[in-house]
Amino acid sequence: MHTVAILVLDNVVPFDMATPFQMFGWTRLPDGRRPYRVRLCAESPEVPTEGFALRIDRGLDGLADADTIIVPGCADSGPPSPEVTAALRQAAQAGTRIASVCVGAFVLAEAGLLDGLRATTHWMATGELAARFPDIEVEPDVLYVDNGQILTSAGAAAGLDMCLHMIRRDLGSAVAAHTARVSVVPLEREGGQAQFIVHEHPPVPRGSALEPLLDWIEDNLAQEVTLAQMAERSGMSERTLSRRFREQTGTTPLQWLLRARVRRAQYLLENSDHPVERIARQAGFGSPTAFRDRFRRVVGTTPHAYRSAFQAKSAVRV
User: Fold this and answer.
1) Based on the domain organization, do 192 and 250 belong to the same domain?
2) DSSP SS3 for 3
């Protein structure tokens, strides 16, 4: 039997912990046997969380003979203790598979287990992970990353995807598909976590010469907007405008325009039942083909799939 140890730290996020507990605990082989044994491990026999305390099965010694260790995310608990990082490093050296859910990636990073590897975490924390640990190649637009021995997942729901992936890797697609059905989740989701990211425009300093131009762009997204038009509108040369954009927004005028159009399209997909052809025109993409291609490039999924996932139930025909 394969032992899965869930490393529970102070202020653990309950849903992050419940995800692997449910996935591996509900897995069954075709003959009904349980292929996984799931245990909770921590430094103390009881761990506080929001609203209740968790009774723990084993101490950190329970990580030593585990086949898989999973580290859930924690709410502002600070860096792990030296004992936790040492236990994780020893397990990694022994060849144990180690995975993280959501911001649990920071625990693996503190232990040095992600150095030189690709990794992900919740999209709101990818920037911090990349800044604090420059030796990690942070992937902000994926649901999970599998490096073989070390895996990381995005938000708690993406932890479901990662656990199903590990079950399929261990026991095959049929067993993983049965676990997905029991859990009432898809075996695979389309797209990555890019579809959940709110693409905010970079802040522009108040009083900047770009403010009137950006307002004009937002008001004219449905029209053709070129770099030459932007430059003329701002009273700058194209070269100067591009330099100002990079200085104040960190991107180019045309990239900013694309993000603005994607945001407009996302709003329409969520809050109307306009056909894709109409949304393509309203957001300024021109043809539906160009709209689908650029939307997928930025968001990581198709307009149709995005609408299916995020359309407000109150959206009415206009």
Assistant:
1) no
2) strand
In the numeric block, the tokens 């038009």 are attached to 229
Q: List the Cα angle 17/168/164 in 5-degree steps.
A: 30
Task: Supply 165's token pair.
Answer: 């992936």
Angstrom distance (rounded) from CA 87 to CA 43: 11
HSE-CB for 290 with a 13 A CA cutoff: 11
* Coil, helix or strand at residue 143: coil
Tokens of 225: 């907007």
Query: What range defines the domain where residue 220 resides?
Result: 210-310
Find out whether 203 and 213 touch, Cβ atoms under 8 Å. Answer: no
pTM over the 0.90 mark: no
How far apart (Å, rounded) are the C-alpha atoms in residues 5 and 289?
47
The span from the CA of 181 to the CA of 184, in Å, is 5
Domain boundary among 165, 196, 227: 196
Residues 6+ apart with CB under 8 A from 188: 161, 164
**What are the residues facing 37 on neighbouring strands?**
3
pLDDT digits 0-9 by tens, 66-113: 999 999 888 776 788 899 999 999 999 999 999 999 899 999 999 999
316 domain-assigned: no
CA–CA dist 130, 193 (Å, integer): 17
Q: Based on the fold, state whether residues 159 and 245 are members of the same structural domain.
A: no
